[in-house]
Design a protein that fits this description.
With about 80 residues, this protein is largely without helices or strands. The chain has one domain: Herpes Virus-1 (2-Layer Sandwich). It is about 15% helix and about 10% strand. The protein has two helices and three strands. It has a three-stranded antiparallel β-sheet. The longest helix has 7 residues. The chain is elongated, with a radius of gyration of 12 Å. The model has no long low-confidence stretch (mean pLDDT about 95). Pfam families: DUF1272. This is DUF1272 domain-containing protein.
Length: about 80
């Protein structure tokens, strides 16, 4: 099950479970659309994988399957993947 991380790993912007502008890689690294497009150019800086739109969990399922509360933030911000 996806963690649904609560923030952008680059800029620390809040990304609630229903955010339409959250993107993830296959390892669930999470970024806002602005950072993913303008800084990372669609590539995860951690694994080099593709960043795609994060699915939204139905509201009725959030109580039994809550999103993560662990904030992940890259020290020093993000740089494009090499």
């Amino acid at each position: 099950m996806l963690e649904l991380r609560p923030n952008c790993e680059c800029c620390d912007r809040d990304l609630p479970p229903d955010a339409e502008d959250a993107l993830i890689c296959s390892f669930e690294c999470t970024f806002c659309a602005d950072c993913a497009e303008q800084v990372l150019h669609g590539v995860c800086p951690n694994c080099g994988g593709e960043l795609v739109r994060r699915p939204r969990r139905p509201v009725a399922k959030l109580a039994a399957n809550p999103p993560s509360t662990l904030r992940v933030l890259k020290a020093g911000g993000c740089r494009p993947a090499a």
